Protein 1
Amino acid sequence: MGHPLTGPLNVLFGIDLEIGSFYKNVHENSRRMHAHLNKYLQDRKSGLTKSKMDGNDLLSVFLED
């Protein structure tokens, strides 16, 4: 999500700025969601969590390879 000021600054000068609390909230929510999904995937890989579907689901197929 680019901001009209921070997007060009990042592209032109490599400066990564966050303006306002909106970006802080998005960053924190993204971090929390990533951590939750990563834990779920690790639990599925290790067998702690099983699919709730009968048969194989798409994630099960990917984890087999």
Protein 2
Amino acid sequence: MILSDAMDPVLAKLSETVRAAGGAKRTLRLRGGGTKDFYGQALEGEVLDMRGYGGIVAYEPSELVITARCATRLADIETTMSEHGQMLAFEPPHFAQFGSGSGSGATLGGAIAAGLSGPSAEATLELELPEDKAIEQLNRWGGKPLPISASAWTGGELRVRLSGAAAAVAAAKTKIGGELVEPEEGESFWTGIREQTDPFFRNGAPLWRISVPSATPPLRLPGEPLIEWGGALRWLCSRADARTVREAAKRAGGHATLFRGGDKSVGVFQPLGAPLMKIHKELKREFDPQGIFNRGRMYPDL
């Protein structure tokens, strides 16, 4: 549903709440559907419920432009776009299983704030490869004009999703080889990776999100790995201590985030050096001069 400016009273009320909190030096925690509450440091501050400020403001399918308020549900945006044969190119995860119950749902504001993306599904191929060979193959394919839109390796099996024109997908199937996965199974698999409902993510151990250069060899860390993004994103279910994981990521030229579970007192995000922390503090001061929004969500000093 496309909305007019009838929601200005809602915005006015939110503005009033923010001004009052700033005057009283009271911290606020912006919250929509709550599906990303698990992500980041411990939650602090009074909840500022944004769910009243939702709805699509404008949509021009021919221009590939959509404007929506922060609390607009992703499901509503995706439904509206699908009616015109369109989709969100970055395929944001909903994480509905982590929502706050009745009336909850992943929102546009939450998707932007979390900065996460994932795969969705068309033709999927499966190949049996060890981890090091899978990384090599993914990087080899990455240098060729193949319509690979998603990849995931775990437990000795590499799955690759192809998207695009029928002729291009058919040609890529021949070049890549492997076994063709049934469409329903493929769609279920990629949804499980995006929404983290795949059995891998139910391991029970803390979940690490490790970003490294795509050609980085296996990190050889304790636990179970899953590789995405052509080798550049390494998920790890592991009870290894934070220093071990972060040092391995740093040696590879990357960083590690304690995505879910585990002891958050070790810090969820990779510690920043003094120059980068200074930049973060200056940005925080510019956008939140009174320091009342989501205090400590990323780092204790922000």
Protein 3
Amino acid sequence: MNPRAQLIVEFVKAYSRKYGVSPSYEVIAKAVGLKAKSNVHRIIRQLETAGMVKTRPKKYYSIKIVDKTVDDVVKL
């Protein structure tokens, strides 16, 4: 995972813990220094393909971080 994607994952985790909902793409873009929401969208799609996050189409505040440790415990 590239440093920008890692920064977005960490920001979404922190924001979700603090506010109880995931941030919008606009908030993420401002927080990590991107100029366009489309760049956030592209990175979120890459993270979703990699299995790091889940989103619900056409829903705001729908980014969920996938906790890989839970999946590892379930496999035992």
